[in-house]
């Protein structure tokens, strides 16, 4: 298994991918569990347009873990995460304080920019 901030591609026809995605401000933040319905809706919307199979999903107050399987020959995980994060963020009132960099990019101050991914090539 390979874990890093950058995803290492996999050419397998079928591979399971483990992801960890964190909120920007984690301490004392229960945003994900408080708005779990919004997160579910965002994931379901993305799954319709960009299918993937969920093998496991754990939502904690300030971060989430999931094990997903992308369709064969489709390793475009970054679009899926971008859309899930965007759908969730757009459903929330804009109350967070953003730094200059996030303001310039039009980003919300909700998610860490990175995510950790790993794949299990033995699952193929």
Please, could you describe this protein's structure?
- 31% of the residues lie in helices and 21% in strands.
- The chain has 124 residues and is an alpha+beta fold.
- Strands 2-3-1-4 form a four-stranded antiparallel beta sheet, with no helix packed on it.
- Strand 2 (53-59) and strand 3 form a beta hairpin.
- The longest helix has 14 residues, at 36-49.
- The two termini are 13 Å apart.
- The relative contact order is 0.30.
- Residues 12-124 form the Transposase IS200-like domain.
- This is Putative transposase.
- InterPro entries: RAYT_transposase, Transposase_17, Transposase_17_sf.
Q: Care to count the β-strands?
A: 4
Helices and strands, in order, run as EHHEEHHE
Helix count, per DSSP?
Answer: 4
CATH class: Alpha Beta
CATH topology: Alpha-Beta Plaits
CATH architecture tag: 2-Layer Sandwich
Would you tell me the structural class of the helices and strands? alpha+beta
As a whole number of angstroms, the C-alpha radius of gyration is 15 Å
Overall morphology: globular
Q: Whole-number average pLDDT?
A: 82
- Uncertain segments: 1-9
Domain Transposase IS200-like: 12-124
Protein name: Putative transposase
GO molecular function, one term: sequence-specific DNA binding
């Amino acid at each position: 298994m390979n874990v890093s901030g950058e995803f290492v591609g996999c050419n397998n026809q079928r591979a399971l991918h483990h992801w960890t995605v964190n909120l920007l401000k984690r301490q004392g933040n229960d945003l994900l569990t408080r708005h779990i319905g919004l997160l579910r809706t965002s994931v379901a919307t993305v799954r319709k347009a960009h299918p993937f199979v969920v093998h496991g999903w754990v939502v904690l107050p300030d971060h989430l873990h999931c094990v997903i399987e992308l369709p064969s020959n489709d390793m475009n995980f970054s679009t899926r995460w971008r859309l899930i994060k965007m759908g969730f963020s757009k459903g929330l009132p804009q109350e967070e304080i953003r730094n200059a960099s996030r303001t310039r990019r039009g980003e919300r101050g909700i998610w860490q920019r990175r995510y950790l991914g790993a794949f299990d090539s033995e699952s193929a």
